[in-house]
């Protein structure tokens, strides 16, 4: 998954204002105790990060 697609999905699900706030502030065990930004900066694949977000935030299947 390309980062542009990842951020489009984040924005579609959380809205333009909250997507970045969530990505910056929400620490997830599924990402090794990292935020979305930290995981991406550490080299995690965007698809893996999106899957973790989907699991944690119970994103509906059609949006995964």
Brief summary of the model shown:
With 64 residues, the protein is mostly helical. It has four helices and no strands.
Catalogue the unreliable spans: none
Number of strands: 0
SSE ordering: HHHH
Measured by DSSP, the beta-strand proportion falls in under 5%
Quaternary state of this entry equals single chain
Question: Helix count, per DSSP?
Answer: 4
- Tell me the major beta sheet: none
Q: In one word, what is the shape?
A: globular
Distance between the termini: 12 Å
Cα radius of gyration in angstroms: 10 Å
Protein name: DUF3046 domain-containing protein
Pfam families: DUF3046 (PF11248)
InterPro entries: DUF3046
Organism: Streptomyces olivaceus
How is this structure best described in words?
The protein is an all-alpha fold. 62% of the residues lie in helices and 0% in strands. It contains four helices and no strands. It has helices spanning 3-14, 16-25, 36-41, 46-57. Helix 1 packs across helix 2 (16-25). The longest helix is centred in the N-terminal third of the chain and has 12 residues, at 3-14.
List keywords for this structure.
4 helices; single chain; 62% helix; 0% strand; mainly alpha; globular
Write the layout of secondary structure elements.
Elements (H helix, E strand, L loop, with lengths): L2 H12 L1 H10 L10 H6 L4 H12 L7
Helix pairs in contact: 1-2
């Amino acid at each position: 998954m390309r980062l542009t697609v990842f951020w489009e999905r984040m924005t579609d699900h959380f809205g333009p204002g909250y997507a970045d706030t969530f990505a910056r502030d929400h620490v997830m065990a599924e990402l090794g105790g990292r935020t979305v930004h930290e995981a991406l900066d550490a080299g995690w694949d965007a698809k893996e990060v999106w899957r973790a977000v989907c699991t944690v935030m119970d994103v509906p299947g059609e949006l995964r």
